[in-house]
Amino acid sequence: MANSAENGSDKQRQLDPHRVDPEGKLTTDQGIGVDDTDNSLRAGERGPTLMEDFHLREKITHFDHERIPERVVHARGAGAYGHFHVYDGSLAEYTAADFLTDPSLSTPVFVRFSTVAGSRGSADTVRDVRGFATKFYTRQGNFDLVGNNMPVFFIQDAIKFPDFVHAVKPEPHNEIPQAASAHDTLWDFVQLQPETIHMMMWLMSDRALPRSFAMMQGFGVHTFRLVSAEGRATFVKFHWKPTLGTHSLDWDETQKIAGKDPDFNRRDLWDTIEAGHYPEYELCLQLVPEEDEHRFDFDLLDATKIIPEEQVPARPVGRLVLDRNPDNFFAETEQVAFHLGNVVPGIDFTNDPLLQGRLFSYLDTQLIRLGGPNFPQLPVNRPVAPVRNHQRDGYHQSDIHTGRAAYHKNTLSGGCPALAGDGAGPAPGAFTHYQERVDGNKIRKRSESFQDHYSQATLFWNSMADWEKAHIVAAFRFELGKVETVPIREGVVDHLNHVDHDLALRVAEGIGVEPPKPSNTPNHGRSSPALSQANAPRESV
Ligand code: HEM
């Protein structure tokens, strides 16, 4: 097949009989044997170094170019390979994805766990969200479930993501503080964006301090769609549940560990796999029929909300086992590229505005992080499904495409790849977008159904045991207590007062803020004094 990237090139293969191995000796990148790699070529023993020393120049040049940009978020991570099995074929009524319906399949996976705010060299045990990103190398192409260890997110619309991340990262003038949660800019953002409050409750809880990646839940966060072979859609939330249960570190432990072993979670993942104690997770699905879309008192498209499991149970459907460490951190864990848009037939998106913006962001950032459009050819990213298309050339192209013609349709290339269907409807093996009916005016306005920012934060607080509440209060006091700007502290306490009066009182008491009066009328984020101030028209200067 002339257009197939898996094909390689006959011309290259003709070199094979000539290949040699100079007995494992050190060579340059050109395969030239090296006799001395400790002394550069000099004019005389104490003389100047000579430009003609190609080995010196190549060695140093390569070193000079070793670094690539770290991820703009989730820079610090650890990865492992494994496999996924679905328990039985019962999901066939919901999805055409074969890795979710064929129990005879063992689907290879690569998982990367990460912290979000810290840089590549930061400590593992900081208070932060953890990424839980899974690449399924399915027979129908790669499916990436790019989730976190908390089921909700800070914002409802991806257009706020640059603002949010700028507020979370160290302040721009002095790059302080490295700690994600203890500074004015984050809490300023929080007080002005009440949609963050539910996620902030999770972030101040012990969920932000996982004991081990093997003891951490994962969540796809958004509502996705499963689509059956017949084209019927069902809303779905994806959950990973660790078989070891969910366990956290205590705050004091995290502080000591960060100093003594900043690689604590990463080392634990590596060591447990080497020891044969493989981390395992059960995949659970919450399924909601399309006709039930509006039966909840929150919006399924709002990523700051969970679907309570009392309302829709999480159904166990399969098992993930991580049983192989990578061979090379950079080649695999650093260069892996997850993308929410990598879906297979049978899994589709919804109109969640956070999800929709993510669909743009991942590929865009990887184009710069991984140096151009050919990073899907890197071994860790390459699908096990064949790749056949007319995408060509570009930086770091390592496939050797053959044939005269690189366009669709053609008769000249000895086998232009055929389409799986005629584009008019579902075709076996091809991805066809779910034909959702969409009708609306072009507006920049959030639906009223996205406006309740407190009810689920209250639900979360009420679900906590007394000792868990004490940890949450202590976390708010510690993190907010570091905020220098008093009105920001007050603004956050005002929001907490809409979550729970006792919570607000206890936090206020610990950070020198006036205790608030009880709030009987949750304002749903629409009338906070700080908000009206920030939104007030400014006088022009
Ligand atoms: C990276 C999860 C929201 C942009 C990641 C990673 C995870 C993740 C797990 C690390 C992937 C890896 O290990 O390589 C999430 C979740 C979100 C969310 C669960 C909300 C539910 C967003 C939004 C945006 C965004 C709204 C932008 C609009 C990025 C970018 C990266 C990233 C640019 C770096 C990717 C790379 O360089 O490979 N995210 N994210 N994320 N995320 Fe998100």
Automatic annotation (TrEMBL):
EC code(s) of this entry: 1.11.1.6
Ranges for domain Catalase core: 27-416
Catalysis: reaction(s): 2 H2O2 = O2 + 2 H2O
Name this polypeptide is given: Catalase
Cofactor: heme
Compositionally biased residues, Polar residues: 520-535
Keywords, alphabetical: Heme, Hydrogen peroxide, Iron, Metal-binding, Oxidoreductase, Peroxidase
Functional description taken from the UniProt entry: Decomposes hydrogen peroxide into water and oxygen; serves to protect cells from the toxic effects of hydrogen peroxide.
Region (Disordered): 1-48, 512-539
Gene Ontology MF annotations: catalase activity
Protein family according to the UniProt entry: Belongs to the catalase family. HPII subfamily.
Biased composition (Basic and acidic residues): 8-26
Organism: Actinomadura rugatobispora
